[in-house]
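lol forgot to send this yesterday, sorry. struct tokens for the thing we talked abt
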């Protein structure tokens, strides 16, 4: 007999079934939110994985198209690799969960979520987030939970919690907040330039709702929770640190890490490590943990320097940004390019424009979104950090960074009616030393403007860091963290936006949550830095979008036709439209409402395509003059084609002002002629005259 727990959450019923399915997992729950159903499990290996110095957590979010009554498209009728949405959901689950497992835990842990059914008004992603937290909390795996997650929308100035599909469509905010009992542990947001104070209000409104869910989870754990199992700690013994400090005193370690050159610092640490390896050559136990010990020694040194001495490794002030540079038109012949440099972080973004038919088609669980017009892709090659490894395509980090930049820029893009293009930006990481995702937002904003995309406002991004002490009041927020401060610090708080407000947030932390004062200070610090970057660095490079797209970009003209005439333009099996494309060399897109986009690089060819379409959809009246080509000659007259698939007849009596015996006396096949419309003949065909054309 299984146990069932229920609560009302944002106007819908959240139901949790325990001990109903998957009983061999360490923890498993069958989650129901409305009709959305997700199986969430938490499983751990019996023994720690050997030879690693990190906690091996894997998070999976498995979408099954049967959940929305679909069969996968394409030749392979089985779900393939994870969709971008699934990858991003895994990352959102991972970020608040990971800090709550013991740092010295080395057993493999997998949090798996299987989406079984989807009701569009009840988010399967949110259901999986809650399911993972509950499964880990009731399991015997060491986990300092529970946590809860809430999604927030902003509709007509009012917050909507766990919004429905209709509310999401109308919302100016897509915010996800995860909380522990006391603090906020994860923030992910996309917003239409929402002011900072409104964003803070939304975050803590979600935090308040999370407390009700945590209380609900507590009742489940009290009744169904297993005793947490003991584990073999992999922490570095205190005597190893003492032995290391006897050889490398703290002052020497400070000197080694106190430099603004990443390569110099890494070489200093390599030299220290070599000395320690020689000193411990006969001591296998110390050698086994030496790498982790040196890492921890660096971490303690950097944190002490920042928190107690207010010194940063590169010598900057706490709120100082690294040297910045911006330029555009770096790459010839592409549609738009820009490079943004912040210290040793350097991103080049290239913009490509294409017809709307090139928009990305989506085949997923969200039935409201079937295509994506703006695509941002982010690449992080090994050379950007001075390493070598084979390229295996984008990983979860690259997909996540691309999605964050995409989210930050979507609010300022023009609509399709204003700018009928599909848009792709690709951010290439040339060099990396912290916060490349935010540099890619700056570079992408400039690249879009350089390409002639009429964005409403420039967007800049910056990251704030954090070092905490023993109490909640003992902390220091850092502006523009570099790689070392990210590795050894407690937070990477990324905020992107315009002068008007925030367009995206992503918060990663390594501690058990943030207090409201820390979040408010971080948002204020990023606002100040973002304003400086926009005004002093990006605007001098390009302060507004170019008035038109570049010479190598496709040009698009639009026209509107009667939807009833779409079939005439397309023709049987596409014969007519393909003939226009072949004749003019343009691309043509037609939507169901009769919107026609003509895309090409030659203005004359585009104008000809537009003329031909206009001719096809026009119901000609007597007296109208047009040009056509003789395509057929009969004894009784000639047929004139004035657009692909559109033709009419000139009777032999209407060809010449003088009497002729045969059509061939005056006309030849392929000849271009002017005709005047006489209306329709008895057979319903268009009838024309050549002799009655008034020059």
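and heres what i got for the seq, position by position
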């Amino acid at each position: 007999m299984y146990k069932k727990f229920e609560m009302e959450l944002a106007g819908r019923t959240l139901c949790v079934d325990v001990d109903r399915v998957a009983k061999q997992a360490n923890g498993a729950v069958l989650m129901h939110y409305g009709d959305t159903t997700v199986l969430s499990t938490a499983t751990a290996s019996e023994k720690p994985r050997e030879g690693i110095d990190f906690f091996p957590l894997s998070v999976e979010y498995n979408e099954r198209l049967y959940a929305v009554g679909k069969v996968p498209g394409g030749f392979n009728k089985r779900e393939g690799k994870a969709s971008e949405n699934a990858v991003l959901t895994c990352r959102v689950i991972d970020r608040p969960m990971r800090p709550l497992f013991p740092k010295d835990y080395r057993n493999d842990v997998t949090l798996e979520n299987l989406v079984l059914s989807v009701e569009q008004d009840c988010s399967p992603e949110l259901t999986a987030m809650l399911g993972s937290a509950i499964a880990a909390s009731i399991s015997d795996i060491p986990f300092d939970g529970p946590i809860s997650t809430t999604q927030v929308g902003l509709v007509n100035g009012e917050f909507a919690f766990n919004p429905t599909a209709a509310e999401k469509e109308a919302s100016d905010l897509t915010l996800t907040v995860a909380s522990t009992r006391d603090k906020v542990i994860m923030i992910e947001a996309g917003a239409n330039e929402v002011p900072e104070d409104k964003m803070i209000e939304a975050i803590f409104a979600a935090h308040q709702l999370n407390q009700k869910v945590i209380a609900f989870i507590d009742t489940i754990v009290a009744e169904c929770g297993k005793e947490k199992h003991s584990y073999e700690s992999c922490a570095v013994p205190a005597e190893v640190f003492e032995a290391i400090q006897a050889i490398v005193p703290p002052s020497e370690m400070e000197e080694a890490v106190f430099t603004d050159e990443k390569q110099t610092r890494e070489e200093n640490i390599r030299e220290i490590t070599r000395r320690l390896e020689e000193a411990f050559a006969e001591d296998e136990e110390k050698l086994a943990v030496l790498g982790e010990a040196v890492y921890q020694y660096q971490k303690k040194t950097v944190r002490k320097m920042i928190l107690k001495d207010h010194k940063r490794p590169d010598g900057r002030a706490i709120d100082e940004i690294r040297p910045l540079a911006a330029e555009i038109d770096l790459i010839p012949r592409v549609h738009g390019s820009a490079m943004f440099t912040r210290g040793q972080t350097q991103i080049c973004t290239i913009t490509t424009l294409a017809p709307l038919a090139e928009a990305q088609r989506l085949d997923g669980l969200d039935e409201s979104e079937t295509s994506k017009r703006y695509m941002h892709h982010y690449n992080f090659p090994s050379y950007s950090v001075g390493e070598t490894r084979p390229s295996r395509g984008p990983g979860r980090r690259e997909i996540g960074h691309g999605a964050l930049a995409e989210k930050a820029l979507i609010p300022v893009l023009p609509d399709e009616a204003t700018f009928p293009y599909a848009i792709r930006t690709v951010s290439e990481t040339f060099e990396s030393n912290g916060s490349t995702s935010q540099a890619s937002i700056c570079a992408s904003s400039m690249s879009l403007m350089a390409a002639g995309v009429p964005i409403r406002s420039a967007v800049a991004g910056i990251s704030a860091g954090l070092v905490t002490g023993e109490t909640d009041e003992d902390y220091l927020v850092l502006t523009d963290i570099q790689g070392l401060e990210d590795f050894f610090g407690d937070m990477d708080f990324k905020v992107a936006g315009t002068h008007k407000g925030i367009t995206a947030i992503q918060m990663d932390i390594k501690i058990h949550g943030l207090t409201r004062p820390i979040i408010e200070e971080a948002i204020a610090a990023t606002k100040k830095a973002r304003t400086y970057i926009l005004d002093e660095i990006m605007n001098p490079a390009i302060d507004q979008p170019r008035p038109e797209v570049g010479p190598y970009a496709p040009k698009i003209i639009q026209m509107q036709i009667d939807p009833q005439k779409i079939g005439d333009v397309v023709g049987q099996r596409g014969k007519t439209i393909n003939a226009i494309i072949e004749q003019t060399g343009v691309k043509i897109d037609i939507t169901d409402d009769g919107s026609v986009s003509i895309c090409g690089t030659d203005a004359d060819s585009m104008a000809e395509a537009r003329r031909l379409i206009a001719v096809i959809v026009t119901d000609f009246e007597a007296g109208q003059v047009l040009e056509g080509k003789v395509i057929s000659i009969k004894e009784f007259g000639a047929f004139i084609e004035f657009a692909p698939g559109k033709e009419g007849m000139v009777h032999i009596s209407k060809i010449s002002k003088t009497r002729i015996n045969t059509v061939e006396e005056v006309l030849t096949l392929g000849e271009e002629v002017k005709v005047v419309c006489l209306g329709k003949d008895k057979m319903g065909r268009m009838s024309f005259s050549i002799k009655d054309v008034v020059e």
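The CA atoms of residues 10 and 658 lie 85 Å apart. anyway ping me if u want another try
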